[in-house]
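Input record, target 12 of the design panel.
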């Protein structure tokens, strides 16, 4: 289905949430679903990359920087951009003030964050 210029969004934004802390993941996933987002959840980089490699349609990667495993959120974003050059990226961290080497055009939100604020940010990052 083609969208005309100025048409409203025909589908909800699709978010790949990568968060290894279960309670945080559940809280933000619930908020995103309430806001109409389509959410895919991964707890580590390997699972997130599998979602992307399978061709799952995703508009925004929302990843914690400090995730379990050999690949952190910063490296995950780089790998994700190799697979999907147009993928929007939103980083989160409770221990960093920012990212030393973020992917171009990415955004950062410090933890703790208000889920409604993150949803508002994600809505601006997702293609219209």
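The sequence produced for target 12 reads:
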């Amino acid at each position: 289905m083609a969208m005309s210029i100025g048409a409203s969004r025909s589908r909800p934004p699709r978010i790949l949430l990568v968060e290894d802390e279960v309670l945080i993941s559940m809280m933000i996933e619930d908020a995103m679903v309430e806001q109409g987002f389509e959410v895919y959840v991964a707890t580590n980089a390997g699972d997130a990359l599998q979602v992307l490699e399978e061709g799952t349609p995703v508009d925004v990667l929302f990843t914690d920087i400090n995730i379990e495993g050999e690949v952190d959120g910063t490296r995950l974003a780089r790998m994700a951009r190799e697979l999907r050059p147009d993928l929007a990226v939103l980083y989160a961290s409770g221990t960093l003030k920012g990212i030393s080497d973020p992917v171009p055009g990415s955004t950062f939100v410090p933890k703790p964050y208000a889920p409604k604020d993150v949803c508002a940010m994600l809505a601006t990052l997702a293609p219209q």
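The helical segments are 22-34, 45-53, 73-83, 115-125.
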